[in-house]
Amino acid sequence: MHIRQARGENLRLYQKFELQANPRLNLILGPNAAGKTSLLEGLYLLGRAKSFRTSESAEILGPYGSSWSLFAEVENEDQVDRLGVGWNGSEQEQRLNGEKARTSALPKTLALQLIDPVGHRLVEEGPGYRRSYLDWGVFHVEPSFYAAWQRYQRCLRQRNQALRQNLPKAAISAWDEELSVSAEQVSESRRRHAEALGQHLGEWVETLLGISDTRVEFLQGWSTDIGYRKLLEDQLPQHRRLGGTTQGPHRAELKLWLAGQRAKGRVSRGQQKLLVAALVLAQCAILIAAGKPPPVILIDDFGAELSLAYQQRFVRALNDYPGQIFITAFELPAVLQKLPLSMFHVEHGSLTKVEYE
């Protein structure tokens, strides 16, 4: 899988841009505030149908009109798919091969991961970041997961609304059966993925950080000693008092342990960046082992917070990765100078290809 070409209009600084991409390594150079990250944001939108910088489509809009649009051709073996994302001033729309598509159609067509300067949130901040990371991988290897997760969220909203309205027990418990079935399905899918992650992560952590004894701990969001349906029945009085369902997959957590210590608070900022890279590469390895094409990887501000030694480790790992990679940097990093790649320069929202030998 790789992006053959991408183009966009009125995306932040860009009036227009067009990118003919290398199927392996693409390096995007330019000064601060030139539009490097915005270009990655556009690619991310094509693979995720959302930005990694904002939740508001209007904030992506440039000064050249009242709407923005993005298109890409994605090649996967002998098939080429055309992806599109656009915002018309009021709503966002996705297209796949010329037809309107659901949001989920884009990540199914273009599996894409990001490593950026704020990726440390995956290690340092709340469990929601790690749940999202885990769910991205499960989504791509277990086709039934997305529907189960949607059912769980729908039933959870309905049950919580009934709790807030202090409805009779029968009105609340009416959601318990479907909620518990979908909760068990979601948790089992996550558990399998966490186990696979534990099998792959240690190798990448040792390669990038030189730390052995890596462990992944998955907490499903409620005690493993009780089934979820029974928990809903037993905890109903407490849920009534609190006005919500306080246990379940929406409270799941993924804990990371390095050399017997929690990763959170143990590693430096530069090490955190490489730990995030290890998490991304391990998850990509799971997809590849499941027969999926290698995801596209976006890396923003390659050298930030990385010593030369860490940059060298990172490049060796990336050089072995079989998929497409996009990297942004201020200038050509010395550690990348001998690698075959396509180079682009960005300045004031203008993207040009640079001849590179």
Write up what this structure looks like.
The chain is an alpha/beta fold and 357 residues long. It has a domain of 176 residues: 3-Layer(aba) Sandwich (Rossmann fold), CATH 3.40.50.300. 40% of the residues lie in helices and 24% in strands. The protein is built from 11 helices and 15 strands. Strands 2-1-4-5-6-7 form a 6-stranded antiparallel sheet. A hairpin with a 2-residue loop joins strand 6 and strand 7. Helix 4 packs across helix 7, helix 7 crosses helix 8 and helix 7 crosses helix 11. The model has no long low-confidence stretch (mean pLDDT 92).
| Number of extended strands | 15
Which stretches are poorly predicted, pLDDT < 50 over at least 5 residues? Answer: none
Rg to the nearest angstrom?
22 Å
Order of helices and strands: EEEHEEEEHEHHHHHEHHEEHEHEEE
- The CATH architecture designation of the domain at 1-111 and 293-357 is 3-Layer(aba) Sandwich
In short:
40% of the residues lie in helices and 24% in strands. By secondary structure, the protein is of the alpha/beta class.
Supply database-style keywords.
single chain, 357 residues, alpha/beta, Rossmann fold, 6-stranded mixed beta sheet
Question: What is the topological layout?
Answer:
Elements lengths: L1 E10 L2 E7 L4 E5 L6 H13 L19 E9 L2 E9 L4 E5 L2 E3 L3 H5 L2 E4 L5 H4 L2 H15 L3 H20 L4 H5 L2 H34 L4 E6 L8 H7 L1 H7 L10 E6 L2 E2 L6 H21 L6 E4 L8 H13 L4 E5 L12 E6 L2 E5 L3
Parallel strand pairs: 3-13, 3-14, 8-12, 12-13
Antiparallel strand pairs: 1-2, 1-4, 4-5, 5-6, 6-7, 9-10, 10-11, 14-15
Helix pairs in contact: 4-7, 5-7, 7-8, 7-10, 7-11
